[in-house]
Amino acid sequence: MKRNTWQREAVREALDDTEGFISAQALHGALHQTGSPIGLATVYRALGDLAANGEADSLQSPDGESLYRACSTTGHHHHLICRNCGLTVEIAADEVETWAQKVAADHGFTGAAHVVDVFGLCANCTKLLAAGE
Amino acid sequence: MKRNTWQREAVREALDDTEGFISAQALHGALHQTGSPIGLATVYRALGDLAANGEADSLQSPDGESLYRACSTTGHHHHLICRNCGLTVEIAADEVETWAQKVAADHGFTGAAHVVDVFGLCANCTKLLAAGE
DNA sequence: CGCTTATTGATAATGGTTGTCAAAATCAGG
DNA sequence: CCTGATTTTGACAACCATTATCAATAAGCG
């Protein structure tokens, strides 16, 4: 039997309140900041369940972390993420949308979804690191 | 200065001899089976170099492993992946490259890398699932 | 050949993720 | 509103892929 716990609900809400992808660790941290004493293992479990149920989307960052996102087909957009400070900028990408659909269709693929996220160093971190090195 | 070692050559050849993607660990294992005493760390380094030079392709498996493959087309490109059977098609995406660079630059980001992968159902699986459901 | 220096490789360290298991919480039924 | 069966939680250990360390090795140059 499947039981409803406030923890699972908390994870779902935290994910809903998050723009774009977030790592399990970051989500756990965010929950803690709001005073929730939820455990890390529970966050992983809840995210895994959500992903298995199709309520969340997951992908792997270039660093090998698992990132999760609330699965809302509405309001599709992409992200520009600073790999140093985590700053995230939303980016519209109509060209990419059409490109993805076209590419998929050209190869006979259907039900095309796509993962398009750009990682880099934001202006600030670029400056900081340039000075540091 | 960059030196040529038999180890790097061995990794390149082992990768060439491999169909599809292979993990660093598996490649290391395969090399050992042929009697090569190459070290694991060296395999990782060699694969990283190959990927950096565009001679190899890398992606993350759903398990979080890094998978590598000898690159047919030298240069950066992306993937169209069937989410049912795992079929992978390489796709050139010049438009997306320039788009990613432009977007990053517009926001002051440097060192832009990007994750651009399209998931869908290949023609075959589309047919199979349509029949099955 | 000998020197300089990049490279190697055994091993330790790292870090995200998953397993463990006792304690707490949930739900159903009385 | 209790009670009991059972699921879920969560602190922590275990895992495992990957990366860093660093002394020893070997490539390339003169």
Which tags fit this structure?
5 helices; homodimer; 3-stranded mixed beta sheet; about 130 residues; DNA-binding; 6 strands; alpha+beta
What does this structure look like?
The structure is a homodimer of 133-residue chains. The N and C termini of chain A lie far apart (56 Å). Chain A has helices at residues 6-16, 24-33, 40-52, 94-106, 123-132; strands at 22-23, 56-60, 66-70, 78-82, 88-91, 110-121. By secondary structure, the first copy, chain A, is of the alpha+beta class. Chain A is built from five helices and six strands. In chain A, the strands form two sheets. A three-stranded antiparallel β-sheet of chain A has the order 1-3-2. Strand 6 (110-121) of chain A pairs antiparallel with strand 6 (110-121) of chain B, so a sheet runs across the interface. The structure holds a DNA duplex (30 and 30 nucleotides).
